[in-house]
Amino acid sequence: MERDLGAVFDVDHDDLREHFERDTYRGRAYHYLPDARHGVERGTVVVDDVVVRGFPSIPRTLVLDPGVADFFDGPVAIEEKLNGYNVRIARTDGDVYAFTRSGYICPFTTDLARELPVEDFFDDHPERVLCGELIGPENPYTTHDYDEVETAALRVFDVRHRESGDPLPVADRRELCDSYDLPAVPEFGVYDPDDAVAAVRETISDLDEREREGVVMKSADGRRALKYTTSAIHRADLAHAFDKPYDYGRDFLFARIIREAYQAVEFADSDGEARERARDMGEAILLPAIESIRDVREGEPIGDEHTIRGDPATIEAQLNRFREYGLHLEISEDYYDEGERVVTFLKVADASRDKIEHFLDGGTIDE
Ligand code: ATP
Ligand code: MG
Predict the structure, then answer these.
(1) Residue 223 lies in a domain
(2) Are 145 and 269 contained in the same domain?
(3) Which atom of ligand 1 is nearest to the CA of 83?
(4) Cβ atoms 121, 80 nearer than 8 A
(5) Of ligand 1's atoms, which has the minimum distance to the CA of residue 86?
(6) What gap in Å lies between CA 135 and CA 156, rounded to an integer?
(7) In this structure, are 178 and 48 located in the same domain?
(8) Can you give the pLDDT at residue 184?
């Protein structure tokens, strides 16, 4: 890495440099920061000696009132929080790359990004990075489905300066996306902080019914953001974790239960409604766990199923990458469709399966 990080981040170059990891994309070396260090965001990348800042962490409020009014001192833009994976797209030295949250240049996502009308955008705004959520049923990382997305698709939620990380104001960013035909996350309007609570509450109820994730509220200048999520996603997250109960940390599970508890206090108007939430959450936790234990007892594999489609070499690279990382894949379908390779695979939850087998065999536990 030639680039002087000291000049960009105002920290000692060598101190920061030692935390970067080296990787390659199609033979080209790049460096990324797997964990936040010296105030520099996780996922910060140096590629072709260009620095692309990691995407910052967004705080969450557990209560809308007074969480929202306390956090914002001006108009609040409400946008949908989509449930996929975080992607940054930048162009360096003529090449467009897509980075995952941790700074990995993802071959699958990079191919997808190159099919978007991004070249015109980068011709005019070479130093910007497009930040968005990659959603849809056909992707290697997440499993949430959206009715309106058939395969895999990007929804832009931020346009930043790649090196300083400075965001564009919300309205400018939306206009810019529009003018370059770049698809953006859904929006639900702009409100004064005092009115925002009622608006978010109504939006959340509607999103909850549609089993969508939640909202991200943003200040007009794009510099402050706050997230809040639906009961539907708390349950979906729990169901997703409890069908492989030993593959998730306990913090993950505890956080979802707590989010729901605060929301119930704020949203559930009667004891009946609170009880209904309790029942729904119990089912979301227990039913998937029961099903998985049964599956293991029957000798069936457990884990997450994904389908990916794309250029055959890219699909191969993606599968190899997962295997290098030690993921155990079970391929159930593999075929070609108009020159694209389509593969359906299970990311086998080995840790959970082994533990469940152990306990089904009568293994004891010290608790
Ligand atoms: P962190 O806590 O570090 O932000 P996380 O992955 O746990 O990490 P999430 O709870 O998923 O974070 O919430 C933040 C993420 O939400 C963002 O990183 C982004 O990928 C995603 N996101 C989806 N829609 C939006 C949106 N409209 N605005 C901003 N971020 C969004
Ligand atoms: Mg997310």
Answers:
(1) no
(2) no
(3) 23
(4) no
(5) 20
(6) 11
(7) yes
(8) 98
pLDDT tens string 305-325: 999 999 999 999 999 999 999
Range of the domain at 267: 231-297
Cα 86 to ligand 1 centre (Å): 7
Q: Do 241 and 328 sit in the same domain of this protein?
A: no
In this structure, which residue's CA is closest to atom 9 in ligand 1? 58
Q: Ligand 1 centroid to 23 CA: how many Å?
A: 25
pTM: 0.96
Strand ranges of the sheet holding 45-47, from the earlier edge strand across to the other edge: 21-25, 28-32, 45-47, 50-52
Say how many Å lie between the CA of residue 230 and the centre of ligand 1.
Answer: 14
Average pLDDT over residues 8-33: 93
| 109 lies in the same domain as 167 | yes
91: closest CA among 40, 132, 130? 130
Residue after which a domain boundary falls, among 297, 315, 337: 297
Same domain, 41 and 136: yes
**Do the domain assignments include residue 358?**
no
Q: Can you give the pLDDT at residue 362?
A: 97
The CB of 224 under 6 Å from ligand 1? The reply is no
Whole-angstrom Cα distance, residue 115 to residue 154? 11
